[in-house]
Amino acid sequence: MKKIELSKRLQHAAKFVVPDEPIADIGSDHAYLPIYLVQQKKVPTAIAGEVALGPLKHAENIVMRYGLANKISVRLGDGLEVLEEKEALGTIFICGMGGLLIKKILSSGYAIGKISQKTRLVLQANNEEKALREFLMKENYKIIAEDILEDKGKTYEIIVAEFSKTAVVYSELELFFGPQLLAASSATFRKKWSQALKINERILAQLLNTEHEEKILEIQEKIQKIKQVIS
Q1: Are 191 and 182 contacting, i.e. CB atoms less than 8 angstroms apart?
Q2: Residues 31-37: contacts with CB within 8 Å, 24+ apart?
Q3: Could you give the CA distance from residue 10 to residue 5 in angstroms, rounded to a whole number?
């Protein structure tokens, strides 16, 4: 059977899998990631979760095309509702969504007992990464790895977290930029925030001399943080 090819962003997410343990990919987008991990013998079985019937049927067809219906379970449901209670999983992937949506999915999953403390979380947010890190800190999840990459003109951040029995505390800058991304300060990281600085400076120039005082203060604080990190 032909090997499936992943996008660059999913390749980077895949490298953080806990090997030899089942995974779940929530909002699986054609089940490409589960197929790849099973084909590569990184994991024995996988769950591909979809919230809508159309994507579910499409994912089922692709899984069958690759002859993996006996190893990949494609399930219909909202977020982590597709999982059994405390289902034994090495890794839960939630990729390609906004940070607030990922936070909502995780929060709902905790409320209905769908996340084991033994399960690693691999999260790829398109925005609002700070809110997601704040949530992880509140729930005592330690960020064990982070990654930043460019793929097809877009920049993606990956947050990898595991439950900690001791309190997890991050500074404001670590929450905003990512503790490991901040420490590494890679070329991609600096490029992202240099571009963000220019955008925020343009927004500030448009807001000055208006009555949007709260928004002006928010943008000024963001600019100050960025300059502190990339200067």
Answers
A1: no
A2: 31/59, 31/62, 31/63, 31/72, 31/74, 32/4, 32/6, 32/7, 32/62, 33/6, 33/93, 33/95, 34/63, 34/72, 35/4, 35/62, 35/63, 35/66, 35/68, 35/72, 36/4, 36/6, 36/10
A3: 10
Residue in the block written with tokens 């951040």? 157
pLDDT digits (tens, 9 = 90+) for 37-58: 999 999 999 999 999 999 999 9
d(CA 18, CA 15): 9
Please give the chain's pLDDT, 231 residues, in tens: 688 999 999 999 999 999 999 999 999 989 999 999 999 999 999 999 999 999 999 999 999 999 999 999 999 999 999 998 768 899 999 999 999 999 999 999 988 888 989 999 999 998 999 999 999 999 999 999 999 999 988 999 999 999 999 999 999 999 999 999 999 999 999 999 999 999 999 999 998 878 788 899 999 999 999 999 998
The amino acid at residue 160 is: V
The H-assigned helical ranges of the chain are 8-14, 32-39, 53-65, 99-111, 129-138, 172-177, 179-184, 187-207, 213-230
Per the CB < 8 A criterion, the answer to whether 56 and 31 are in contact is no
Token couple for 194:
């240099």
